[in-house]
């Protein structure tokens, strides 16, 4: 129904504000979402442009760039040029803030090469917030958004800056991860160009500090997060990271919209990065992918061995110490493990040491490698996501699409997307993976043993693979919800 409505109605101009976007710049799932959303909502009658900081890979990916405005300084937030052009790799048009002193540096978008956050991050990302408000205020007379959709703390000041400029546009803010809040010392507040009244309990003040996340949760017209279950979890003291009270008070404005999978990028039938294509109807290519992966990683060439994979940031969130504890038992039971990740130095060292000691059974690759992530997810039998918390999680969705059964903890988006292989679920053909509840090595090991047992039952295994592969996690459902939300909040404003 929304399709026929969207065909008749004029496209709604929406500005998406984010710090990273696939395939130009990515540190995590946020980039995947930001990269997929513009095309997905276009099909729902939304004219989406993107605003990004002028990081080197973004500038390099821009064509036909022209200056559309000079953005004034705000407090200690420096003036900048606003460029407009096309990002062909992302199939969207974009505004980019050209401010070399802020954005052209060694290291990543948020931290230097030694993983130390940049000392002026409050100014770098306040620049993003002010630029969005300026665009909503009509700095480009050719195109004025009705709704501004900001993602995560980096864009947390967007709704607050929009209120300061009293723009007509409405704001939507998406929480991808409440654990990263954009907290800065209280003294930095005076540099942001905001009036003193904003540094208050009903503003962006958080126990004496400045919180970009809290600013957004206070001031956004609508708040979304990336799964229905995480939307409930963050309203509890256990998972609310100190913001649960505020989130409860805004519950009528808060909703969970499950992320989609970009099927142009993650589809085993058309994935140029993998050894052989395959489909749910014909899984022979998957066996080829497994053999190629075992050969590539120097693992024993053994089709009968259960091959587990991990593709992940190595942070506390991802629960990998549970795997670490279980590894000796897994090795005794003859299981293989292939891991790709980077982050926590202790975890990196621990897993690398195990791989050195057991090269035929364990392979660990550190760093960020997109094509290898595809080969791992296609070649493995099971993908492990034992997270402590998980707002949505994308790799379990990639696993489902690739017939690589997810083994996950029952939390956030993982709980919303994977059904454990209980006998009832097997009978009902709803089982799609292995789910454990307690955050304990024992609970994870029980799920691992279920996976090992079921792997010896090919009929059931293939049933789970087909169930997962038949599920549709493409962007259409999410895009329909976002487009509806944009329309609702714009209509409510009029
Ligand atoms: P998060 O955003 O919390 O890291 P998600 O599961 O939502 O978790 O998204 C992670 C994304 O990053 C996925 O696209 C995954 O394939 C990718 N990824 C994570 N680590 C690596 C890595 N070391 N190399 C390549 N891709 C990675
Ligand atoms: C965050 C979350 C992850 C989610 C991703 C995209 O990084 O940790 O669970 O899938 O954002 O929304």
Describe the 3D structure:
- The protein is an alpha/beta fold and 494 residues long.
- It has 2 domains: 12-260 and 476-493, 3-Layer(aba) Sandwich (Rossmann fold); 284-470, Glycogen Phosphorylase B (Rossmann fold, 3-Layer(aba) Sandwich).
- 38% of the residues lie in helices and 19% in strands.
- It is built from 19 helices and 18 strands.
- The protein has a 9-stranded mixed beta sheet with strand order 3-4-5-2-1-6-7-11-12, with helices on both faces. It has a 6-stranded parallel beta sheet with strand order 15-14-13-16-17-18, sandwiched between helices. Strands 8-10-9 form a 3-stranded antiparallel beta sheet.
- The longest helix is centred in the last third of the chain and has 18 residues, at 476-493.
- Mean pLDDT is 96; it is low at 1-6.
- The site of alpha-D-glucopyranose has 14 residues, from helix 2.
């Amino acid at each position: 129904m929304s399709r026929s409505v969207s065909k008749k109605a004029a496209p709604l101009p929406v500005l998406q504000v984010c710090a990273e976007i696939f395939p130009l710049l990515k540190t995590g799932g946020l980039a995947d979402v930001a990269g997929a959303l513009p095309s997905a909502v276009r099909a729902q009658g939304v004219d989406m442009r993107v605003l990004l900081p002028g990081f080197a890979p973004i500038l390099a990916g821009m064509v036909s760039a022209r200056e559309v405005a000079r953005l004034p300084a705000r407090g200690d937030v420096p003036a900048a040029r606003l460029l407009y052009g096309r990002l062909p790799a992302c199939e969207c048009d974009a505004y980019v803030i050209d401010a070399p002193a802020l954005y052209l540096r060694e290291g990543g978008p948020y931290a230097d090469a030694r993983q130390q956050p940049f000392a002026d991050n409050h100014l770098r990302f306040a620049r993003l917030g002010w630029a969005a408000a300026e665009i909503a205020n009509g700095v480009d007379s050719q195109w004025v958004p009705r709704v501004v959709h900001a993602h995560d703390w980096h864009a947390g000041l967007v709704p607050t800056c929009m209120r300061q400029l009293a723009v007509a546009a409405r704001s939507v803010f998406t929480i991808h991860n409440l654990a990263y809040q954009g907290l800065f010392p209280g003294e930095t507040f005076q540099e942001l160009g905001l009036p003193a009244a904003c540094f208050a309990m009903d503003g962006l003040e958080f126990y004496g500090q400045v919180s970009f996340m809290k600013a957004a949760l206070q001031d956004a017209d609508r708040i979304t997060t990336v799964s229905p279950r995480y939307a409930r979890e963050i309203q509890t003291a256990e998972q609310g990271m100190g913001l649960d009270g505020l989130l409860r008070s805004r519950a009528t404005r808060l909703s969970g919209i499950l992320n989609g999978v970009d099927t142009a990028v993650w589809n085993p039938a058309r994935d140029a990065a993998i050894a052989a294509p395959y489909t749910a109807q014909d899984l022979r290519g998957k066996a080829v992918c497994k053999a190629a992966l075992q050969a590539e990683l120097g693992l024993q060439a053994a089709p009968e061995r259960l091959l587990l994979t991990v593709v992940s940031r190595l942070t506390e969130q991802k629960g990998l110490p549970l795997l670490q504890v279980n590894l000796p038992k897994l090795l005794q039971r003859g299981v293989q493990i292939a891991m790709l990740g980077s982050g926590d130095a202790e975890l990196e060292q621990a897993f690398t040491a195990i791989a050195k000691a057991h090269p035929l059974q364990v392979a660990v690759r550190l760093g960020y490698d997109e094509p290898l992530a595809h080969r791992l997810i296609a070649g493995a039998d099971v993908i492990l996501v034992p997270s402590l918390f998980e707002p949505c999680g994308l790799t379990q969705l990639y696993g489902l699409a690739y017939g690589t059964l997810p083994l996950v903890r029952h939390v956030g988006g993982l709980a919303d997307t994977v059904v454990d292989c209980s006998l009832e679920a097997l009978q009902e053909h709803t089982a799609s993976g292995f789910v454990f509840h307690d955050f304990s090595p024992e609970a994870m090991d029980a799920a691992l043993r279920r996976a090992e047992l079921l792997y010896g039952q090919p009929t059931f295994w293939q049933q789970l693979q087909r169930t997962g592969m038949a599920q549709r996690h493409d962007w259409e459902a999410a895009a329909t919800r976002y487009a509806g939300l944009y329309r609702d909040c714009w209509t409510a404003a009029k």
